[in-house]
Amino acid sequence: MLRINRLVKRYGNGEPVLKNLDLEVPGESVVSIIGASGAGKSTLLRCINRLVEPTSGSILLNETELTTLRKEPLRRARRRIGMIFQGFNLVDRLTVMENVQCGRLGYIPYWRAALRRYPAEDIERAFQLMERVGIAHYANKRADELSGGERQRVGVVRALMQDPDILLADEPTASLDPVTSRQIMELLQKLADELHLPVLINIHNVGEAKEFTQRIVGMRFGRIIFDGVPDDLDQEA
Ligand code: ADP
Ligand code: ADP
After folding, report:
1. Ligand 1 centre and the CA of 173: distance in Å?
2. How far, in Å, CA of 164 to CA of 62, rounded?
3. Phi, psi of 198 (to 5 degrees)
4. Could you read off the pLDDT of 126-173 as tens digits, one per residue?
5. Atom 22 (ligand 2): residue with closest C-alpha?
6. Which of 59, 66, 164, 171 has the fewest C-beta atoms lying within 10 Å of its C-beta?
7. Ligand 1 centre and the CA of 57: distance in Å?
């Protein structure tokens, strides 16, 4: 469960770009965050993984207050926040197996990932997850030999290797064609259900958000202006 209370973020001395945000996301639920460019979607995600320092407010992930963690506890908490990226962020010259192992290792330099011998249980775990998303047969392929959809599945498995408490996806389908986008969105929903994970997806394509998620959060100028099911969004518009 993710519980955000009165979250404020102000960059420098400017106007806050997150203005007293409240948001609860239970496990097993996928939330699409929509809103015009500049609404604050990325800032919200970055506050959760603390790439951006919140100005005030609270972010509880399960029992942990994320906003006040420092150093080692912060590092530990971050390792349980799975990130999925628009551009996949894979290391092209590494194999699929090496790329997904990077998730567990906290994104070590690629040359260390390549030289490393992984414990049998980590290999086993990676195969299980790759099986689950349908890429096990690519384990020894180089990442740059895969299609976009396959690469995003590698990104998903890498995030799952962190044994995450939450998945944060920043425009995960923006580089994909519509058919592949659908598959990835359905995969995220399936994983949320099976692993009881809250999943937050920043998405610029409102059509995709409406089609593939049960809950949509709409942001505008740093506030949540809509939180509900896709059908109600139509009534607002
Ligand atoms: P849409 O109409 O698609 O919802 P907007 O036209 O309302 O989007 O977005 C307008 C622009 O206003 C955005 O590009 C954003 O950069 C800018 N903007 C951002 N913050 C503020 C603010 N606090 N007040 C006014 N404009 C803002
Ligand atoms: P979105 O993801 O919805 O496009 P962002 O979170 O990227 O919105 O941006 C929200 C607002 O914060 C925008 O007005 C943007 O210009 C501003 N902003 C984002 N990052 C920074 C930064 N590092 N420094 C200053 N302002 C920023």
Report:
1. 24
2. 11
3. -75, 135
4. 999 999 999 999 999 999 999 999 999 999 999 999 999 999 999 999
5. 11
6. 171
7. 24
